[in-house]
Every structure is written in C-alpha cells, then in structure tokens.
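Let us work through a complete example step by step.
Step 1: write down the sequence.
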Amino acid sequence: MLPSQPLLHAAVFALAVLQALASDTFIAAVYEHAVILPDVTDKPVSPDDALALMNKNMDILEGAIKEAAQQGAHIIVTPEDGIYGWHFTRETIYPYLEDIPDPAVNWIPCTDPTRFAPAPVQERLSCMARNNSIYVVANMGDKKACNSSDPGCPSDGRYQYNTDVVFDPEGKLVARYHKYNLFMLETQFNYPKEPEAVTFETPFGKFGIFTCFDILFHEPAVVLVSKLQVDTVLFPTAWMNVLPFLTAVEFHSAWAMGMGVNFLAANTHYTSISMTGSGIYAPDGARTYYYNMKNEDGRLLIAELDSHPRLSPASLPAVSWSSYASSVERFSLNDHEFSGLIFHDQFTFTELTKPEGNLTVCQKDLCCHLSYQMAGKQEDEVYVLGAFDGLHVVEGQYYLQICTLLKCKSTDLNTCGQPVEMAQTKFEMFSLSGTFGTNYVFPEVLYSGVQLAPGEFEVLNDGRLISKTRTTKPVITVTLFGRWYEKDHLKQDPQPPAFL
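Step 2: predict the structure and record it as tokens.
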C-alpha cells in the first residue's frame, strides 16, 4: 500500500532533519605515514621509476584510506611529502611532478584521466576518493611552464610548487594549494607570487588548507580563519619536532585552541630527524593524537568533530590576552634573573626556588606572571619562568612574545631551555599570563613523555592559562606562545650568534 501524502511529507521532513543533524558533526581521519624514500641521486630518475616509487607509497596510503572509510570517516588527510619524500634538488624532483589544473575546470581524473596531460598520481588519488566515497587530501608536486615574457620565470622554464590537492567523494578535484612559506631546505620548489587562501565547502562546514611551515605566518593561515571564517583546517606536514615549544602535537593543538578551529594534522614519520606527531584537534583540545619516537610505524587516527566549532557550546569566549596581566602589580622583583637560549632566542629566566609562589619575569614590553603550587618539589629538578619578546631569525623571520614555565635539563641553570622529554614534578595548580601586545597567542601544556593534557587546563577570557585540576602527569612546559605578525619585518635585534 502506498503511504498517504501527509505521511510521505513527514518521512521526507524527518529525513531532512536527520541529514541536517548528521552534518552537525563529522568523522575525520589523518594518517601518519612512514614514507618510502627514493635513493638520493644527483641525476633525475626516469618518469617510470619515479611513478613506481610513488605507487609504493600510494599503496600504503590507499590501505589507510580504505580503512578510514570503513570506519565511517568523511575526510582523510595524508602528509606533506607523503608520496615521494624530500631528498631532492630542483632537477631531481622534476620526474615526480604533474601539471595540476585549477579546480574550476570541474575534473574527475578517475573517470576522465586523459583530459589533460598524463596525470597518473592525480588519477589514482581521485579513484581512491571515488571508490571509497571519502574526501582525500594529499600532497604532491605541481609544474607550470613559463617563458621569458614572465620576468619571474625560472631559468629552466617552469615553476615547481609544493602542492596540496583535495578530491571529493566523487573523485572531483575541489582544491589546489601551492605552499607559500617554504622551509629553508625546500630549494626544489618555488613559492607562488601571492599567497593563496584556498577554501571549499562541504556538508560539514567550510574547510581551508595550508602546509607545514605556513602555520607560523599570517598568510595564508590566519587569513583563512580570521577573514574567511573556515571551520576546519587541513594540514599536511613534514614536521621536525623542536622542544620545548614546537613539537607537532603541542603546537598544532595550541594553534587550534588559539584560533578556535578544528585542525587535522598529518605528519610524516621519520624518527631519525624527529618527524612524528599527528592529530585531530578541536578548539577545546585534542580528540586524538599520535607521537612515537620508538619505532617507524605509521598510524591511522580517527575522531569525531563538530562541523561548526564556533557554534558549539564548548566554543571559547573571545580572550583579551593581556587583560589580567596588565591589571596586576609585578609579583616579584627578581635579583636572580639570568639569560638562556631556547631555539637560538635569548630568554630572561627566574628560578622557581620554592614549592609554591608568585613570580614575574619581564623582557622588553612583555611581563609574564606565574602563580603555582608544586605537588612536592623534586630536589633534582629545576623549573624556571621565562620571557622572550623579540624577532626569531634562524630558519625564518618571525616575531615572538613567549611566557613559559619549563623544566630545565638538569640542576645546572645553564641547561635551562635545552630540550627535555621527561619530568617527575607534578603541579597542584598553575596560572600563567602575560602583557601581550598581540591577540594571537597559542596555549601549550606539555607533559612528561611529550604527552598532551586535553581537558586539564583552560584559558580564561582575561588571558590566564590555568590548570583545572592537579596535573595527572609531570610537567615539561606550560607556555603562552604569542605571534606578533605586524613586527615580522622589523630590523633584527642584536642577538648572540645563532648556533652557539
């Protein structure tokens, strides 16, 4: 018997409601991939050999994509350099590149592979997406021919770009992003003349994409969130961890919290150069993450996220980062301040000499205030409060304002700021704040063993980073990592030599 008209309308309405509800959340996946690297060579390999190597990596990525789809994931992010590695010159990477068209051409490589120049990598990625009904995010190389009519054209007659591509569940190319902020070793690539702010719409929110080193700069990263209002950032990366502030899981989760967005970070896995650390991060903390320096295993991560985190009840209120710190008098006048280097930047430190207390340390215009109570002070562990207000100029030029509580490597104060992975001291409470001149501040809490602390700390709207409970693990660092983008192009401060 056919249903009555009112029943049919009710059923259609119920289905629409279910679909609307379903899009309130989505299931995200990232895959940390132990890349199969090509042999290092001075001469380019043949296109066939390059494709064979890329297919070996894509075999592994395809397995992860199938598994993610079977577990209900709507989108999966794979790493930067995940298809061919990173040991290249401009000449030797050329056989690995394809011409990637503008997504406006409305192309499904899987069903129409011969529409443009041969594109076996794009065809295979497109088919992975289409055959598994999932958005696939991958990183590959793009080549664009140019000639002398373009004054910027390289002498070999082509631009070469580190490129992210996104294929939708039908296999259609829906996004292409050329990395703008190349890392110092990426001499095989050009950067685009203008930064590209790449977004695309999905049934579960607006997505933006950028790559690795881009995260430290205003364009395109901040533009995507602050101006274009993306809900979720996709982040292929080949991230080398730098303690105490710039491990992948620590900084990427802090960026998600500071910017109020979802953040899907897929790292390569290569422990000999400290590459590990992938995660699925929400504004209120990590949903899941992976950090493993013990072996060379890749890992698939899957978690549920709110489609529109700004509309979530857990959405953080706007933070006035200097409000509290500017309203209080200096906690302490320190007779025993000393200097130390963290990643080549000269910090001003003061030691936490007592099991509990209130301390202030200042550098230039930045004063950092800390209230704390240790859960039993270990005699063989030293913690300091540190401040840095200046231009970082080593692997890039960017202006930092940092307030940090951190463990020193030993009881020798000269080791304060050196990388530390393990600690024994827990804290009953901490409250850290600073007189920041920027609104872009990223809150980090890192526990012993390079572990995150989701749910154990919060940022108040007056700018204090506070513990919610006694820390469940010993503390490596509690940090407010501020970026003052407007000062990136200042003349360099006089500093000690970078590689002491």
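Step 3: interpret the result. Residues 10-22, 493-500 have pLDDT under 50 and may be disordered.
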